[in-house]
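Priority: low. Protein: MerR family transcriptional regulator. Input follows.
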Amino acid sequence: MKIGELSRETGVAVRLLRYYEAQGLLTSQRSEGGHRHYAPEAPVAVARIRTLLAAGLPTRVIRDLMPCFTGDGTGLQACVLDHLRGRLDELDSRMAELAQARKALSDILETSTRALAHA
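Result:
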């Protein structure tokens, strides 16, 4: 499958597919003319990449996870689950910090609004 076909099938721009390849997330074979040709399972790989990107994982981590998929879906081998749990814990921590910052900002706005109303 050529890069344009892969782009049409996955809805991912050709430029992004090239980027995925440059990052080591996706592989292709080159024809004598230099055209990229992807394996029939490339759309599955692209879907996995998109899923992991949507989960907030950087491409360097995704590159390490790509060989660890099981079956045709997004399930991963047990050996990488602790890493993903650690990432989830980091997100939970960041979300808690953001919630605290939001509360503090909300309190400042409320106090300021009340003070201005009485001025």
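The chain has five helices and two strands. The CA atoms of residues 85 and 91 lie 10 Å apart.
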